[in-house]
Amino acid sequence: MNSIDVENLHFTYPESKEIIKGINLSVKKGEFLSLVGQNGSGKTTLAKHFNGLLRPSKGKVFILGEDAKNSSIAELSRKVGHLFQNPENQIFEETVFAEIAFGPRNLNLPEEEIEARVDKVLKTTRLAKYRDTHPLSLSGGEKQRLALASVVVMEPQILVLDEPTTGLDLLSIMGILEIVKELHKKNVTVILITHDMGLVSELSERVVVMGNGQIIGDGTPKEIFADDDLLERASLEPPQIMKFSKILGLKPEVKVDALYKRIVETL
Amino acid sequence: MIEIKNLHFKYHSQTEEVLTGIDLSIKKGEFVSIIGPSGCGKSTLCLTLNGIIPKTISGEFSGDVIIDGINTKDREVSEFSRRVGMILQNPESQLFAMTVEEELAFGPENLAIPREEIEERISWALSIVDMGNKRDEFPGNLSGGQKQRIAIAASLTMKPDILVLDEPTSQLDPVGKREVFSVLKGLHEKEKMTIVLVEHRTEPIAELSDRVVVMDKGSIVLEGTPREVFEKVPLLRELGIMVPDISYLTYLLKEGGYVKDIALTVEEGRRLFI
């Protein structure tokens, strides 16, 4: 069973032009997929269909094999966790603990289970020492980890990260990514929306390129970043390492370590 | 042009100093990039360059910031707003007028500059940011990159000698980032403007700047040309700063004795192998 199946999806906001123009996409369980493309290409609009925030104008979306139209946002959000760009928009409780416990409380879980889940997540997101702190006094990177914790505590099988690293410094970014990598190892399906082609090459197994409401490319990072024509159409800048491996006339690589090995072998 | 001497600053709300003794001088026409982990004091340092600290945001301030020979302690912020243009992360917070033209006219009108000269300044500023065709546009309709270019143009109409930009592209998509960096390149190369850029991505820093200043915990820990700074890969990694991939790759190759130097750009990398 796939995590996500999208069949001939179209979406139009009321009194607006069509944003999603016929998308077919299947995401396997445990896949790490990056969704890239210019602003306005439809990445976020597509992803909002995965947890029911948006409903298709035409076509179908299946989550874990079930037609999403038969489930409420609340039901879908147990399966699909969604982390947005600006963590402040997702934070509203008085303490870090209460913030993370909010979701599980709505599931009517017993109090001991809620505590157990929250404490586990506090550990994985390295926020345990802030258990009783007011969320708004955290730093930018910590707030984003808190927002991620509130999503992870619901134990979703699919995680959608919409530009989770915008405006964060590198140490904060690495903090977020460590957590995401751990979840991916536990077979959580990850959909990462980002403009950072370095992250895409580093993390993803598969890259889907969107342009003007359609999918215009789908492949491994190496395949996508070696396709100059596609990059041009999507206004994407190939990673430096890809450019450099081409200049040296070597087989395309996207990671520093891989190109280093290749150069040393060739010399 | 900019002279900073033994600068210390502590916000009233905090217990520790955010700037713990900064000494830095920046020459006319120089392009200086400042980099460092969150909370290292780089944004606070920017706010001292036009007198907002200590004049508007007060705290415990000691040391001197001298702009064009004038100490920021001795004059009002309005004096420096003509000399130092300040561009922040989010262009939306800086735009307020109904048209691009009104946005650009606002600053010079407040200085009571004659109409013809305002007109000239607007045309000049719009040509620099390559937005001459958007004069009558509502700023809200522009893309993120265009908005930031208008924010830059608005500060150019004050004819500043110095432009200070605090992570001007962090909220922009790759196209917008490219647009803004290309404007900065033009301002530096053609208009010979002094530029202070706070930025956390090292690729544009390597390409654009004359000098890189690395800050940590309120002080300058490393300073030099991009090459001198980006060679110190292990130190930078400790601070959570990633050098451009091409520099990291050539650093590894240099350590292994395969190349003589590190490269700052892909083009430089190519030359190492000829």
- The radius of gyration computed from the alpha-carbon positions of chain B, rounded to a whole number of angstroms, is 19 Å
Radius of gyration of chain A over alpha carbons?
19 Å
Which quaternary structure do these chains form?
heterodimer
Sheet/helix structural class of chain A = alpha/beta
Please mark out the parts of chain B with pLDDT under 50 across 5 or more consecutive residues, or reply none. none
Which two chains form the greatest contact, residue counts included?
A: A-B, 31 and 32 residues
- Assigned CATH architecture of chain A: 3-Layer(aba) Sandwich
Q: Given the structure, what is the number of helices of chain B?
A: 12
If you average the pLDDT of chain A, what whole number results?
92
Stated plainly, the CATH topology of the domain at 1-83 and 194-235 in chain B is called Rossmann fold
Compressed to H and E, one letter per element, the order of chain B equals EEEHHEEHEHHHEHEHEEHHHH
In the CATH hierarchy, what is the architecture of the domain at 1-83 and 194-235 in chain B at level 2?
A: 3-Layer(aba) Sandwich
What does this structure look like?
The complex is a heterodimer of chains A (267) and B (274). Chain A is of the alpha/beta class. Chain A has helices at residues 43-47, 73-79, 96-106, 111-124, 140-152, 170-185, 197-203, 221-225, 228-233, 240-247, 256-266, and strands at residues 4-12, 18-27, 32-36, 58-63, 66-67, 80-83, 158-162, 189-193, 206-211, 214-219. The longest helix of chain A is centred in the middle third of the chain and has 16 residues, at 170-185. Chain A is globular. The model of chain A has no long low-confidence stretch (mean pLDDT 92). By secondary structure, chain B is of the alpha/beta class. Helix content of chain B is 39%, strand content 22%. In chain B, the strands form 2 sheets. A 6-stranded mixed β-sheet of chain B has the order 6-7-8-3-9-10. The model of chain B has no long low-confidence stretch (mean pLDDT 93). The interface between A and B is medium-sized, with 31 and 32 residues.
